[in-house]
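We recall that each integer encodes one residue's backbone shape. We quote one record:
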Amino acid sequence: MRISLIDVDGHNFPNLPLMKLSAWHKQNGDQVEWYDPLTAWLNPPDRVYMSKVFTFTPDYPHPVCAGEIIKGGTGYEYPSGGKSLPDKIEHIYPDYSLYPELCRNMAYGFLTRGCPRGCDFCVVKEKEGQKSRKVADLSEFWNGQKNIVLLDPNMFACKDWKNLSQQLIDSKAWVDFSQGCDIRIMTEEKAEYIKRMKIKQIHFAWDRYQDKDIIVPKFKAFKETTGWDRRKMTVYVLCGFDTTLEQDLDRIYTLRDLGYAPYVMIYDKYKLKKRDQLKRMQRWVNSRYAFMACERFENYKG
């Protein structure tokens, strides 16, 4: 078979389902390539897979010519749940050659799925359920690469977190928890395991303003255990969902005072006007130079 792939979101981040589909088809002797709308009408592929991760991404703008077209991903199927990859494909080693620049000495994957929080702004509860569970060992998607990017929504809420953490420690690879780890469930023991990993930067999340009394002591304890500073600790700050600008700034200033680097994430950013205050605040905070040079948002001229 001739198989063509379409990464509807673009090629800025590796699409894991497409990499697994590619690996499976190549193992079965099929030809796999990126879809080319300029030539496909002359010689249509037998099947096209279209994957869309984000709900806000516009759909593919060109006509698709193929014997069969299969669409999948959160961007197409949320919140209905949608299709999952068959186990024989879900648990295959990904074809990293699809993204040679993005995957040079990089491994991407999930050790766990699901999250007990069930936050209203998050798609995980509908997609993966409200329990963090182990779905793979590290060897399923890592084979000696120097860098590991984890896509888990809440690994430290999983009962197997200790075993999975040890696998990451034993890999001696640089580990990136790309999603915001849940500081609310952090303990000294978990922090000690994280400290033993090779980590350039760890990401936490402070989404709910009302969790301040719980979160601040946890951030203090984690910093005390690891001895790390803002160069190694970033905190995603969800803004524009159920908080005021004053509450957003309070979290941002608090994190800076605690020795963490805040990083503003705006809910439904694409709906905001260009000069919206939230967008200005995001430019200020997420520019490390501007944030360090200008102490207060009201003095920021950007």
In short: The mean pLDDT is 94. The radius of gyration is 21 Å. Residues 237 and 264 are 5 Å apart (CA to CA). The longest helix spans residues 212-226.
